[in-house]
Amino acid sequence: MIQEWEKEAKEHQKAYKYMLERGNKNRILNALPRLHEEAFAKIDCLQCANCCRNHSPRFKQPDIKRIAKSLRIKEGDLVARYLRLDNEGDYVTNSKPCPFLAEDNTCNIYDDRPSDCRRYPYTDEDVLLKRVQLTLKNATVCPATHSVLEQLLLLEGTKK
Hints:
Layout: H1 4-11, H2 13-22, H3 25-42, H4 45-48, H5 50-54, H6 61-71, H7 75-82, E1 83-85, E2 91-93, H8 115-119, H9 127-130, H10 132-139, H11 143-156
Antiparallel strand pairs: 1-2
Helix pairs in contact: 2-10, 3-11, 6-7
């Protein structure tokens, strides 16, 4: 069943895109830390885990090294067992949901997770503006991204 926020995120894609591309960049960037905190004060990632079910982070070499050490396996075994190269040459998980996602939506490698996971959904960073297509996609996957974008629409006066 599609949740209300997911439906709204799909319906507001054009408004989000317009705001991210043409809105007041300084005002948006200044508002992000507060909006990020407000969103995550209301949203419990452990109730959702859509990111881990639908996306794969990039696993950079330092991530692979750190995770392999934590799991007490060889780096090559980690890559062979859990990762593949995508069409951009990045290592990503070879399955969905993420093989490190536990049944209770916790992460089995949380303390050693990749940088992309630590930073996701980038709602407190300039990535939100620099990678508009990624932000638009994240809005349909992550309720926190949706919340931040909805508040930015209000701030920018593009939502009634």
